[in-house]
Description:
It contains four helices and 16 strands. By secondary structure, it is mainly β. The protein folds into two domains: 2-125; 138-274, Immunoglobulin-like. The strands form three sheets. A six-stranded antiparallel β-sheet has the order 12-9-7-6-14-15. Strands 2-1-3-5-4 form a five-stranded mixed β-sheet, with helices on one face.
Amino acid sequence: MRLDIENTSLPDPVIFLNNRTYFDYMLNYYKGDDIWYTLELNPDELISDNEVFPDTRVNPLDLLNKNSWSPVDYFGRQHATMILVMETGEYHLNTIRSMEWWMNSEFHAIQKRTYAENVRTVSFSGIAAPNRETTPEFRLDAFVGDEILLTGYDADPPPGLVRPGNILNLSIQWQALKNVGGRYTVGTYLMSPKGVIEAQNDSEPVGGFWPTNRWKAGDLIRHNVAFVLPNDLPPGHYALWTVMYLTGDGARLPVSDATATTIRDHVELYSIEVARTGIGIY
């Protein structure tokens, strides 16, 4: 983990330790130049065996100690990217992981890395995501299976010309048309001019904190992801796709339009044009 953080390719990162678990480790061994902060332990982070995980509709900000979220809210927005160092994961059933939950709701997730059962990092863009109930700037209303509607998306920067090194922030809004029975993963892909996957993010909605089998009719969900375009990315026309597939076997849900005509097994959200090096896009 230490070497990955020290040698990260993420632009302008700031590092947050979820609590003091790795404070001594970072203090003694971390040799990088990036700023890091230790967050206060959240008093409501742990739940006992007889307690129930909070409802997915709860605002995770309400579960956080102000001394935990305010440094992220203030300092995180001053950097292009953030790295959250976690000592717990999905396998720790007695831990809520309130900070990770809130950051998946508030920002755009770049990637997760798991090094051991108690060592994980989750990286985010420093750009805030829209509120989950906000009407998307770009409406699509594509039916995914017969239980889910992809209402639309927000993109920062918007569709158009970008350059290598830019960060693509994408917030997709989904709506449950009925109680959803299956458990699905959202795949978000940056497709190259040759039609191959250049970058991808595969995760359950909201970083796994709002799985589809807990969606109720009428729920609105935002799934926020970000792609850091490599500095050596070739110029050309790229497309952003999203799919939804069964978490178990990978079978994709069909996509249909308002007439219930099946179109394909993915939704092409928008396209970008990656400029040649030297083109003045900022």
